UniProtKB/TrEMBL annotation:
This is Uncharacterized protein. The chain crosses the membrane at residues 12-32, 100-122, 142-163, 495-517. Keywords: Membrane, Transmembrane, Transmembrane helix. It comes from Zymoseptoria tritici (strain CBS 115943 / IPO323) (Speckled leaf blotch fungus). Residues 579-599 are annotated as: Disordered.
Amino acid sequence: MDGNALSPAVTASITLGSILGLLLIALIAGSLCWREAHQSQGPSVFPILFAAVLGRLFKALMNWRLEHGAKLGFLDLLAGSTSAANTILTQIHIGLPSLLGLILLVAWAFSPLGGQATLRVLRLQSSDTLTTNDIMYMTNNITYMTYVSGSLGLLGTLINGLFNAALLGPRRVKESPVDTWNNVKIPMIEYIAQDQQLIINSTWLPVPQDDNVVYSSLIGIPISTMPSDSRSTFFMETSYLILDCSKIKMVDQEDGTFFGSQAVVGTSSANGTTADRRFMSVVTEEVHYSGIFTNSTASKNISCHRDDPHNDMDPRLAAYYFWSGSPEEGIELYNTLCSFQTTYVEVEVTCDGPGCRSTRIRNSTLANPARTWTLFDGDRTNCLWWAWFMQLFMNSVTVGRSGAPTPVQGYFLDPNSPASPLRNKGQNPMQLDARTFATRFAQLLNSFMLICAGPYAVSYGFDGDMPGADIEQATKINTAAQSVRSFKIIVCDPAWLTVLLIASVFLLAAGAMSIALRAKRRTPELALNWSTVIRDNPHIPGADTACLLDDLQRSKLLRHTSLMFGDVASDRDVGHLAIGTKDGGASSPRKGKAGDPRYSMRTRVVDTAERLVPVA
């Protein structure tokens, strides 16, 4: 078999392979349903392939019918049906609406349907998977024995560094639902509940998703690292201190020397401790209220709440003394009396990946101690913790000049710029309302308490950069977290899948039929080109050569022949319009008389009328 004979076979093989590939796409589309998707792509080669296959089928059918004899209208309809639009126009021009034309239109209708089916059979859809995992979060309900013993070691530097970082942090961090180390902050339910009855009834309250939330602390609760590709929700029980303070008043300097003026400033004390004397015991009418000033005299030693923590008791009271102003312009001494209580809450935390925030909060429904019982109460060890905690708290932020305000005092005046000298200079703390002062003071105390409860956990977390660093420094509680992982899956549309399968099977049948018709053909294949038109034309030299070749091969052989449509009998009274060579010769077409094309049209009409011959 020569090379020319291989060309149709190769073309047919390529066409059949393309059809099988398209059918394979339909089958794959069905198998990919409900699979996870990583990309979105759709094939769009169907209309091109469909036109190529159907066009070859109509051409093969036309040649096969011509070989066996067929009506001219039938052949012209097949020849003109190169598209759906041409099928309609051909029927209109021929004036032959028929069942064949309807069948051809239906066949061409599979082209847009199949093309749309390849694009719409598969689509992406979101799907979720729900898993439940045990996670941990830190609690501040520990014994704090490390601090009571005074053996802080490196912990003191770490605790003070974390507290100062939180105290001096930017506004966006202080208003954020998480702290600098991505720990979840707990809102103050007292600022969220519009009705006290909502707190009493433990009603779930939504936490506003804005920057106006009042948080109980600058430090959040350390939690386990959450999955980065999931949305997780869990609940945790926690507590925080809440203060109720009297209105700030100015203290007479002479009256302020009850414990000594130097002790009030915080530079020294009778027993040698420093910077812990801004918090003092209160003695009124021989009733002693627990304060920070624990070691001035034996009579001023603090007492503990050793009652049953579930019984009601009087809240712990303490007075806070502080300076305001500057040494250059004068300083004044102020004080306030605050009561300490504990708020127990249950918080719903929602995490988008590792980023978490409190979304709902309610009053705890557990059997918690009385609100007047705090972490400073209990056994003798915890009573000592009150003294040590306040000493550590007051020593965490110090200044090198007597009477100069510290960032702690600056936080009361402006939480967003506690270290700004312009903010603190000349500010009168009596302008602060009692609730604002109590809230800011509680935020600082809660922050320091959380840091002491787990300094390594606060800074590194449970899965942080220092494995084992939080060992024996944090107490963790397990809770169940529900994680919803959202991902894209490939979904197949049953209707479009059916259309694609039908169109693919139809296309496969058309391709197979085209190959079968070509195999049965005994005559050369005629194409819709000029090599077919001039076959055996007596006006074109060489047109009767190579009559056994297909028209595509004849076109290649005669590609240099110049053709012209015109009058080939200009020497006669009645002309004859035909296609001939342009190069000259006895039968070459020429223009009509005086070059008038209307003459040629006239002679063609007359000639056609005179020369019509019935077709056998």
